[in-house]
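Milestone M4 deliverable, item 7.
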Amino acid sequence: MADSVVCRDSNQDDIEKGYILKFQRGGFFHYAVYIGEGKVVHQTQDQGVLEQRLIEVIGQCSFYIDNSLDWKIRPMSPSQIVKRAIDKVGRKGYDPFTSNCEHFATWCRYDIASCRQIGEKIKQGLMSVSDVASFLSSSFKESVAAAADVICTGCTSLLKAKRQ
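Output delivered:
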């Protein structure tokens, strides 16, 4: 197993099929699943789940291998992860709190849709639930109250505590 989080430039030598990759995008990370041959599958807000060349997704930034849940959750086999990712190409239905790129990547690898970054920003006091909703999707503003009941693995209890 590779290191859980390893900084890489656009070097693909250490990436194996089924690895989760994350890319810095403004205040958040973008997540993708490496499927081999220099390609990733990732969920986008506007175009749904896409298969693209890694170099196109990287742009000018570095990326990280992020299999950091491996110590806690046994990943599926690389062939299962890749199949799950490819099977969802073309699917629409982005939701910042329940179906974003991190949810997609963790579901492909672990069969659990998890998003830790939003919960961490709220937990650290860097963003409120409404700030996160505004940042991620202007169409989600009407549902901010519902968002407080969702969110990601690990932050539901935090939000309930904040409401009391």
